[in-house]
Design goal:
Blueprint: E1 20-25, E2 29-34, E3 44-49, E4 53-58, E5 68-73, E6 77-82, E7 92-97, E8 101-106, E9 116-121, E10 126-131
Antiparallel strand pairs: 1-2, 3-4, 5-6, 7-8, 9-10
Length: about 150
């Protein structure tokens, strides 16, 4: 038999899915192999959309804690490192609230003696407790301070 009139046109194996690699194997026919969309970057969520192909969306590393610095490393992924709230000032007590972040409150310089004026001195990095003056300028009274009541 003669096959002079035979025509051999390629088979269209396109499944119209951008997430497959389409080909035709003479022994098997159409093959639609799922493509790999992983970009090997831990900072992206990789996926394939059938209409547009591979997509990479950034990973959200926010842990919701204001006391951490949230970053992403392509090799290691999300990192949430504790931040320092130290403002470098002696006269503040520094802390961190997970909802509010860094908080600096005035240092309490209190010697629990009502006969002193208690002050924080930044330049000296020290608390000062200066005795209060009880002199009423009346020579008919003796002046002294009661540390409990302050007069």
């Amino acid at each position: 038999t003669s096959n002079r009139g035979c025509q051999h046109s390629p088979v269209d194996c396109d499944d119209y899915n951008e997430c497959t690699d389409d080909s035709c194997e003479p022994s098997e026919g159409c093959i639609n192999i799922k493509i790999k969309c992983d970009d090997d970057d831990m900072c992206t969520n990789d996926y394939c959309h059938p209409d547009i192909g591979c997509r990479t969306d950034p990973v959200d590393c926010d842990d919701g804690n204001e006391c951490t610095e949230d970053t992403c490393s392509p090799d290691d992924g999300c990192e949430n490192k504790e931040i320092s709230c130290d403002d470098g000032q002696y006269c503040t007590d520094d802390s961190c609230d997970s909802l509010l972040g860094c908080i600096s409150t005035p240092k309490v310089c209190d010697d629990y003696d009502d006969c002193t004026t208690d002050t924080c001195f930044e330049q000296d990095s020290d608390c000062s407790f200066v005795p209060i003056e009880c002199d009423d300028d009346n020579v008919c009274t003796d002046e002294e301070c009661d540390p409990v009541v302050g007069s």
